[in-house]
Amino acid sequence: xxxxxxxxxxxxxxxxxxxxxxxxxxxxxxxxxxxxxxxxxxxxxxxxxxxxxxxxxxxxxxxxxxxxxxxxxxxxxxxxxxxxxxxxxxxxxxxxxxxxxxxxxxxxxxxxxxxxxxxxxxxxxxxxxxxxxx
Length: 134
What we know:
Layout: H1 4-17, H2 22-29, H3 33-41, H4 48-57, H5 63-68, H6 84-114, E1 119-123, E2 129-133
Antiparallel strand pairs: 1-2
Helix pairs in contact: 2-3
């Protein structure tokens, strides 16, 4: 059985180790911020899905250490590279965002090229306006 109080302490150690806020940690593992808050306060127990997201995002976290406190954190083999996984994920996200941006730009260009301006209206602060129509 998982002790919520000790799990919360271990979860806080992970957050502190990676120098993240609770909301940044929630974003990294793709859960709601309230989930982190409830776990840290001991209100909720962690789900398997939550635990697996932590392990997948931060491979330095030992599964048994997170759940039961058995083992060490960070794992001995990865202690020197605590930010390596986070950096790779940020790079992957940047590449993904860049690809999405390129697709959106091409869609905007197509829309702009396919459209022609029919009319332009300029409004002045004094209530006047000028209208130019093609």
